[in-house]
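note to self — DONT lose this again. spent like an hour looking for the file last time. sequence + predicted structure for the chain T wanted, 262 res
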Amino acid sequence: MKIKIGIIGGSGFYEFLKGKEAFVRTPWGKPSDKILISEYFGKKIAFLPRHGKRHQYPPHKINYLANLFSFKKLGVERIIAPCTAGSLKPEIKPGHFVICDQFIDRTKLRADTFFNGPKIAHISPAQPYCPELRKIATESCQNLKIPFRKSGTVIVIEGPRFSTKAESRTFSKIADIINMTQYPEVVLARELEMCYLNISLVTDYDVGLKDREDIKSVSAQEVIKISQRNNKKVKEMILEMIKNIPDRRKCKCAQTLKEAIL
């Protein structure tokens, strides 16, 4: 049985399913950790902790190239990638899920392509997130009665520091949520012709919104509480998704390189 579904877990999401661990070597070095091979609903799953089991890799030091290529090497076709995020909009509340459809890259130091020459590809990420997976994610949220938004733009900053108030206010004009790990995962998956889905788990309001009288500042304890509650819900959501993911892909993600390679 082929491993067709891969899950990249975010902060606090390292315990997912039971199974056997495998170390996958790649031309781009070691992935963040060993990959857990498991099975659910008759489907094989590969799970990788994005930051490592001990959370030893900060966002700007994650080996995204190795992580994504290790999944490709295992035969993964679809990736589900939950992450934590801060809200840039008052209406997007802590505890909400956002199924992203767009991103804005504000990182600076990350290797973000497998095509460094002599082979060159110019992929189009006009629609970076798999529409087929986004539809299944939307239906799963509805079935589980999880508060969510079926679309949203995530702005990805370099980290590890958070934004200033001025930066946060600026970002709120062009994006809905803010995160440090969504880029370059999504474009690397596209270069490898794998479907990619992001589920952003909102834990707090970003700093630019906290000085508004109608926005309550969230304490560190509250963020942890919301994060733990979100992790439980996202696990339920992913298991619900796995049951409903069809064996064959009908999206165009697998044809990304058809017109991209020079």
